């Protein structure tokens, strides 16, 4: 079969500022929501906790993270050695506006990203930048109630405009909100990461989610509009967490349940890409009696601020079926069932490369926009040998099968795909569990769940494998 990946395909890797940078109080940086989240533990089942500010004696893994803030030149050089064409990261809002509501940005924070992007360009690596990746300012949470407050739209747009103006000649590809649709399951963890909201006792979490998400979507559309005014050549996309939801059986009601779950998780993409809400969202609000503040001006902004491309993450798929306690086929992760045809990681994430091909076609059929896979990876317990090597053949197997599915979607169905940035090329803090032992990288970082280690970098077996993949534009897997 002839390869059809474009010659300028953007092979690379992806991280988030709060999971890699550290330096949480350096360069004038303020406290973000990630800075008040403790470490969890997959072995004991202990979840990450959200503390009221930073409390002495707690383990906050994002404070130092992988210390990219001081190691970025060394790390970018390692990515360049693999042949990276692109590096996706985020700009920590609290480095630019430490509180989130200042009139004037923090020059030291702006300068750090200038230096980082310059270092990428030194090796011919294209930066791909997310504006908000689970790191809203803590002040926005405590003093403004996050995106429950319409005023926060203005704070985000100001932040976006400062970034677009400063880096317009260094960064071509942007995304607004990372995995904005994770909050479709409105548990506290998701609501805080996405919307900067601490739920109150009398809150209806789902109603809060819809209101917060609406304000975020308006903020995203305004950012797209303002970014294109600053520089029409900027490509500004969305970032959707994609987990295809299959019917558990061929029973017709199971198919309706899967369709309902897809509706509940992916209406965000309709707003981003089509500039309008699907009708079933309004019907849901009506049925539940939700009073969501949506103005005519908002709807006009959403229509005008549609995205240029779709960025999405893909790790796994889900399955669901009919349930007596879910007569309207609503979305909830509590309704998902293990798919007997799939194996899973140590964290229970089901491994489904065919789901990636399905996802690419779903996006292509629905929106007909260019796409980039900006997260896809395998979290695992890696063992470092005495000689410093790590045999992570299981990671190679996972990535190989998913990249093959990606290439098949391009070759067989003609999907418009311009890049693949796996998650994450260097071991970092897990966003969901706060662990270091849940490793994704091609590059091992000497640090454990307790925060102990030298931070020394070493290359895993997958480092050399991915180098060959990039060098052959995916021909050698």
UniProtKB/TrEMBL annotation:
Coiled coil: none annotated. InterPro entries: GH, GH_1_N_CS, Glyco_hydro_1, Glyco_hydro_1_AS. GO terms for biological process: carbohydrate catabolic process. Keywords: Glycosidase, Hydrolase. GO terms for cellular component: cytosol. Pfam families: Glyco_hydro_1. One of its GO terms (molecular function) is beta-glucosidase activity. The active site is at 375 (nucleophile). It comes from the Bacteria. Belongs to the glycosyl hydrolase 1 family. PANTHER family: ARYL-PHOSPHO-BETA-D-GLUCOSIDASE BGLA, GLYCOSYL HYDROLASE. This is 6-phospho-beta-glucosidase. It comes from Kandleria vitulina DSM 20405.
């Amino acid at each position: 079969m002839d390869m059809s990946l474009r010659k300028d395909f953007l092979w690379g890797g992806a991280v988030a500022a709060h999971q890699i940078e550290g330096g949480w109080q350096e360069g004038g940086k303020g406290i973000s929501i990630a800075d008040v989240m403790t470490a969890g533990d997959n072995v004991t089942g202990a979840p990450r906790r959200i503390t009221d500010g930073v409390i002495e004696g707690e383990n906050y893994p994002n404070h130092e993270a992988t210390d990219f803030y001081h190691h970025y030149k060394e790390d970018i050089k390692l990515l360049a050695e693999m042949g990276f064409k692109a590096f996706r990261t985020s700009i920590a809002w609290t480095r630019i506006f430490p509180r989130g509501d200042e009139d004037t940005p923090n020059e030291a924070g702006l300068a750090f990203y200038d230096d980082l992007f310059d270092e990428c360009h030194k090796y011919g690596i294209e930066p791909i930048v997310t504006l908000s990746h689970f790191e809203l300012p803590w002040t926005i949470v405590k003093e403004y109630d996050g995106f429950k407050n319409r005023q926060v739209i203005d704070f985000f747009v100001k932040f976006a405009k400062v970034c677009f103006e400063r880096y317009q000649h260094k960064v071509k590809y942007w995304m607004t909100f990372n995995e904005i649709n994770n909050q479709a399951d409105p548990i506290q963890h998701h609501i805080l990461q996405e919307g900067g909201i601490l739920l109150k006792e009398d809150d209806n979490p789902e109603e809060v989610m819809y209101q917060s998400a609406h304000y975020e979507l308006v903020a995203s559309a305004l950012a797209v509009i303002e970014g294109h005014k600053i520089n029409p050549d900027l490509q500004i996309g969305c970032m959707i967490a994609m987990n295809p939801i299959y019917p558990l059986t061929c029973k017709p009601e199971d198919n309706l349940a899967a369709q309902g779950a897809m509706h509940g998780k992916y209406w965000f993409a309709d707003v981003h890409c089509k500039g309008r809400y699907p009708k079933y969202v309004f019907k849901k609000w009506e049925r539940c009696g939700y009073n969501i503040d949506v103005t005519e001006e908002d709807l006009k902004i959403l229509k005008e601020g549609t995205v240029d491309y779709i960025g999405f993450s893909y790790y796994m798929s889900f399955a669901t079926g009919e349930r007596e306690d879910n007569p309207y086929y609503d979305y909830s992760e509590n309704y998902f069932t293990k798919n007997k045809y799939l194996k899973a990681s140590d964290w229970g994430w089901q491994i489904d490369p065919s789901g990636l091909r399905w996802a690419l076609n779903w996006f292509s059929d629905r929106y007909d926009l260019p796409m980039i896979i900006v997260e896809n990876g395998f979290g695992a317990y890696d063992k470092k040998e005495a000689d410093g090597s790590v045999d992570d053949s299981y990671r190679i197997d996972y990535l190989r099968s998913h990249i093959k599915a990606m290439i098949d979607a391009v070759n067989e169905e003609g999907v418009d795909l311009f890049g693949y940035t796996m998650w994450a090329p260097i071991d970092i803090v897990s966003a969901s569990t706060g662990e270091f032992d849940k490793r994704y990288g091609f590059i091992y970082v000497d640090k454990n769940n307790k925060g102990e280690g030298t931070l020394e970098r070493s290359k895993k077996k997958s480092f050399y494998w991915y180098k060959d993949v990039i060098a052959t534009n995916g021909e050698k897997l």
